[in-house]
Amino acid sequence: MMKKVNAHLLGLSIAALVAASTGTAHAQEKYPSRPIEVIATFGPGGGADLMARQFARLAEKELGVAMPVVNISGASGNAGLTRVLTNAPDGYTVGTLIALSVSAWGAGLGSAKPDDFAYVAMTQNSPSMLFVSKDSQIQSYDDFAKLAKEAPGKLRVATSGYGTQDDITLKYLATVGVKTTNVPFAKPAERYASTVGRHTDAIYEEPGDVVQFLKSGDLKPIITFDEVRHPAFPDVPTSAELGMKINDLPNFRTIVVPAQTPPERVQTLHAVAQKVLASPEWQKFCEETYTCVEGTYPPEKVKDTVERFYENVKGYMARFKDKE
Q1: CATH number for the domain including 300?
Q2: pLDDT over threshold 50, residue 18
Q3: pTM of the entire structure?
Q4: What's 75's DSSP letter?
Q5: Are 119 and 144 contained in the same domain?
Q6: Cα–Cα–Cα angle for 117, 98, 47, nearest 5°?
Q7: Is residue 255 within 8 Å of 95, Cβ to Cβ?
Q8: Residue 306 CA from chain centroid, whole number
Q9: Is there a contact between 98 and 46 (Cβ–Cβ < 8 Å)?
Q10: Does position 13 have pLDDT exceeding 90, yes or no?
Q11: Is the domain of 259 the same as that of 316?
Q12: 149 & 216 share domain
């Protein structure tokens, strides 16, 4: 009996040693040592997709591993974010988290929250605008507001979906007498083409996503939803100038991982992201798309920005509900 007990204790000791050595080996594993999957949470050709691909291309040079990009679109980006959260939180899956998705959470669409993620970097930031076709009878925001007041709901505005800041801005405009119809498009290219082809009267978008149409002259901005005028569009008035209180919903994009990801791996990714954002290639990219981020954004500042945006959206939704 004593021999059996000793053998059992010896077996437990060996198992404990094996478990401890395995844990130590995992902790000492070089990171990254295999490809890192990048989840682009919107379809090909849109701003989030282009950002993800540019980031992956530059970051993989720094990390020394491949960073294949996978597009998982749907539910205002929440389909792809679900994939990020259900994969192992080991730093080998990163995703794009953009303002549209956070807005959807604040509007009650989707169950994710800012605390579900650890934040690698703020990669892009830009105010949104309303754009119209070059051949439109609308050539200014005053024209837009006048027509909307004369025929409430007649003007059709292309957006990226319900619950997004696009939708919230249109809801806000309705509260000041400028009522329009939200026409959501799941695919970015279809959204852009709808206004260029005059199937919709305007599009709510950030300038970087429609830069090719701005350069060709097919689209023109009529209002910037911000406190100050956009330096690239100094003749376009802001919502603040026009007395509106809808100036706090920027169109940001970030790179995230699940909140349970080891902090040292988040820091590795953040350090690489800082190198990417400072590179000449990225600076050229962000300047061409009007999305350069001003200042530095450590992970905690990125999270704070996301949380404040989330609370702003919830505040708007509560005010809209009170007025129903």
Answers
A1: 3.40.190.150
A2: no
A3: 0.87
A4: G
A5: no
A6: 140
A7: yes
A8: 10
A9: no
A10: no
A11: yes
A12: yes
Task: Please state, in angstroms and rounded to a whole number, the distance separating the CA atoms of residues 135 and 139.
Answer: 9
* Residue whose entry in the numeric block shows the structure tokens 């949104």: 128
The whole domain housing 173 covers: 128-225
The owner of tokens 């609308």 is 138
Q: What is the rounded distance in angstroms from the CA atom of residue 192 to the CA atom of residue 204? A: 10
Give tens-digit pLDDT for 102-160.
Answer: 999 999 988 899 999 999 999 999 999 999 999 999 999 999 999 999 999 999 999 99
Q: Are strands 156-159 and 202-205 parallel, antiparallel or unpaired?
A: parallel
Burial 120-137 (b: 16+ CB within 10 A, else e): bbbbbbbbbbbbbbeebe
User: Token digits for 213?
Assistant: 């149409």
Tokens of 202: 């305007």
Which one of 207, 225, 243 terminates a domain? 225
- Name the residue with tokens 């599009």: 203
**Residue whose tokens read 């749907």:** 74
Measure the CA–CA gap between 308 and 302, rounded to whole angstroms: 10
- How far apart are alpha carbons 197 and 154 in whole angstroms? 17
